[in-house]
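Blackboard transcription, Thursday session:
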Amino acid sequence: MAEVVFAYKNITKRFFGVHALKDVSFELERGRILGLVGENGAGKSTLMNILGGVLQPDEGQMILRGAPFAPKNPLEASSAGIEFIHQELNLFTNLSVSENISISRFPCLGTSPLINKKKMRESCKKLLRSLNLDISPNILVENLSPGERQLVEIAKALSTNADILLFDEPTTSLTAKETENLFSIMRSLRDEGKSIIYISHILGDVKSLVDDIVVLRDGQVICGGPIEDFPIHRMINLMVGREISNVFPERHSHAKDRVILEAKHVSETGIVRDVNITVREGEIVGMFGLMGSGRTEFARMLFGVDPYKEGSITVCTEPLPKRNPQQSIKRGLAFITENRREEGLLMDYPILENIGLVSLPDFSSRMTRMVDSKRLFKQANEIATSLRLKCNDLKNQKVKSLSGGNQQKVVIGKWLLKHPSMLIMDEPTRGIDVGAKYEVYLIMEQLAREGTGILFISSEVEELMAMCDRIVVWSQGEVMHEFEKSEFSQERIMRIAFRQSLEYSEEEKAVVNGQD
Amino acid sequence: MKQTLVRKEPEKGSSAVQEARMPQGRLPLSPQVNVAKRILMSEYFVLYLTILYILILTPIIPRLWHPMNIRNILSNMWPLLVVAIGQTFVLILAGIDLSQTSVMAMSSVVGAVVMTSSADPILFTKSPLWGVFLTEQGGLLGGSPLALPVGILAMLAVGLIIGFLNGFSVACFRMPPFIVTLVSMMLFSAMAIFLTKSENIRYLPEAYLRISKSWFSVISGAMIIAIILAIIAHILLTRTLFGKRLYAVGINTTASQISGVPARRTIITAYMVSGLCASIAAVLYSSRLEMGRPTLGSTLFIDIVGANIIGGISLAGGKGKITWTIFGVFFFIILANSLNMLNLSFYIIDMVKGSVILIAALLDVARNRIRKAQM
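(Written on the board underneath:)
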């Protein structure tokens, strides 16, 4: 039996009372690659942040080389031989490769505080050679390709003689060739006796790379073991097989024939490719995809926040100008952004002003541009009441003092005051409690009944299946498939999002049948 | 060891009690502390402070209440108030306008060149304006009845144009306001001096000079202009579409744009308001000095921003009221006047002014902390 290098023992972590991790235990063996898979929000990143010293667990402990291990900060984790290679690269683009690699421990000239540049370059060269990376140590990181940067990041991790390496989605910005190179390096690191934890959404890669696998779902370890026991379809089944804990309202309304929004062949290099989407009056269209699949980026193009190169977008058959949110609003579009703190709300501003912000021109006189505060207050109050917004004082209370769910109602309220004909909602239920979620669903159903078209972006398949008339599945900047309501299946949707074919291969069918 | 442990115990206990009560928003406080806190958190804090300061100074400097001094204080106050109001608009945007002083210098020169009825050839023959815009018979409209209205309009136009250039660069090229307005400050203050060869332009129309003179007791044209401007600015900020959008952009530009706020237009307008206010202040100052002065306002920047900060307007944006600006200007002028009457040197006065601005900024931080703790 191989030696266990590191183990999680009954780790529990809560954020604001919500379990992010619940009693997680598993072990990492020397000289193995362990794959960690799970949906968005399953707790993978939290788990890694605990090991990396960024977060501390509420309960449970970690065992490193036989001794209890509780890093208080990333530095402690690093000096214990644990290195974290992040999803977003943490390199200083304005510094050279060698400077980046030795940033935390520059070699000095004797006891002086001056940097020994020669030594720094030499050791950097050696590292780069071991990674088959043919670049000069003096080149600035900003001049490197994403793949090269990724390898520099790995070189940085190796420079500290770490023996546990964490990779969080390292291949998202790499080409196929760069990915292959990265994998062969990871394999040789493993063969040298290093232990690796690998997190990825690309299950094919996981399947071919890792030795062991752990599946997380809702912050719990669902299953784990050698990769041979886990064909891809089983991984997917395990990842999504969640009990439906939310309750959804019944959908009564039906889509009408009139098309409200139509996007044709929308493309932007490196972001989305040839996207065609229509939304009808009273229709709720879901957009599902993993993070970075292009759904949010597309929504931003629709609304005119971000530019796109090709294609056209029409609202009620009239073309929509590019990059102009004001025009989009005039044509009846509304956009609830995914991050309400940064883009949805003026946190330091009173609730009333937030609700009124979009519709201010409607409440001001043409001539003097004076705002009719009384009328605005009356209508904002009506909206707040109908959304059951819980607040003490509409006029003076700042939005940041509200709970997440009530903040989201303020965002919704500000758009409803404008009576939009087409509502784009990006993760409208993220970070709000179950009760507030239910209310958001009710509002959606109500709007759809009144004829509003809704584009509903979410990472939760269940809520899309419960609320939508159609679901569009995204992967890597493309619309992969459209599911009609009758075809909804959690597993099929996930398969598409993970770029697996809809049909089972013969081998997989045999396994499925075997399981039954 | 034991002693420290024993001493730590009660502290821990009390902090736990505080934490437990925090959600209700109030810490257990004695009534005096509560009143002190309410005064500190009040919008009128600076006004209270000014009144207190005057009360303390009255027995020390009885001359403070001399009618001449009161008139002096007021005539210093109105132009500063006008230009500080303009700065308030930009500060709400989380911007800053360093070029206001150069706007004042340029306006002053341009206005005088239009209005003057006589120019001394000995002083001005080397000026690039000599012969075309400026002759022995005076400026462009020297002696004409149109001189006054056209002159003032030209002054205002200077403010609007420089303000537009600032605003356009900030809004459309996304340049930092500090750099943009620093450059226009250098450029236009140097230009004002270059155009006049650093000479003051005198012989302005009688009607123009009357703007700053006392009409009746303390009432002057400057006072009426400043008060009307303050009222308009107050309405603009609190009641109009532009005002509401100004605060929104100052708090969060991205969120405002997504909500359909024309952020660029709002930013450009704010800088134009700032320039306009500076040029109105130039009208008042030049008429008081009875000349067009290429170095007008060059030492005024600290007073403008200082008054705003003392009034409680944050450099971080999104916060500010015209009443606060008025209180800040009032306090600043009283402070400068009283220090003058104590016969302190110019340098000591500036040192005191600087310290007061620092204390005001510290106070703002303290108030924000208390506000956060109360939430």
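Lecturer's comment: Chain A touches chain B through 29 residues (CB under 8 Å).
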